[in-house]
Design brief:
By secondary structure, this protein is of the alpha+beta class. Helices cover 17% and strands 38% of the residues.
Length: 143
C-alpha cells in the first residue's frame, strides 16, 4: 500500500483514506523476510491458491512471476507487494482478515522464493467484526 496525500493505493487503484480496514497485514517476522527477499529478487508479489499443488500456503514470487487468472482477487498489499488470492478462496474467506506470518521449516513444495532459506509463509485468519465489514478496503479483480 502506498500513499499520496489523503489517497491510498491498493493494488494500483487509488482510494480516499477514511480509516478503511485493511484485509491483510503482516507480522514483524514476515516483514523482515520480505525485506530479505526484496534485496535479492527486487519487487515481489504473493499468490494464495485454493488447494492445488501447495495447498493454501501463500506463495512469494518475483513481481509478474505468477500469471494471474481472470477474476483472481488482490486483497491488498503487504510491504508494497500485492497479495492475490484465487477467486474461489476469496469467496470462502471474504469475511476474514489475513495476517501473513512466517515459520521456520520447509513448506509443502518449493515454488515460493523463501524456500531456499528454509522458511515458509503462513496465513492466520480471523473474522472481521460487523463494524470492520462496513469499512473494508475494496478489492481489485484481475481481468
Amino acid at each position: 500500500m502506498s500513499t499520496a496525500g489523503d489517497l491510498v493505493s491498493i493494488c494500483g487503484i487509488y482510494f480516499r483514506r477514511i480509516d478503511m480496514i485493511n484485509r491483510i497485514d503482516s507480522t514483524d517476522a514476515a516483514k523482515a523476510l520480505i525485506a530479505t527477499l526484496k534485496e535479492k529478487y527486487g519487487e515481489l508479489m504473493f499468490y494464495q491458491a485454493g488447494g492445488c499443488c501447495e495447498g493454501t500456503q501463500p506463495q512469494c514470487f518475483e513481481k509478474g512471476g505468477y500469471y494471474l487468472r481472470m477474476r483472481d482477487v488482490c486483497l491488498g498489499e503487504v510491504e508494497g507487494c500485492e497479495f492475490w488470492v484465487d477467486r474461489d478462496l476469496y469467496e470462502y474467506w471474504k469475511f476474514s482478515h489475513f495476517t501473513l506470518d512466517v515459520l521456520d521449516g520447509f513448506g509443502v513444495g518449493g515454488f515460493s522464493l523463501e524456500t531456499p532459506l528454509q522458511k515458509t509463509f503462513k496465513i492466520h485468519y480471523r473474522l472481521f467484526t460487523s463494524d470492520e465489514l462496513e469499512n473494508l478496503v475494496p478489492v481489485k479483480t484481475a481481468e
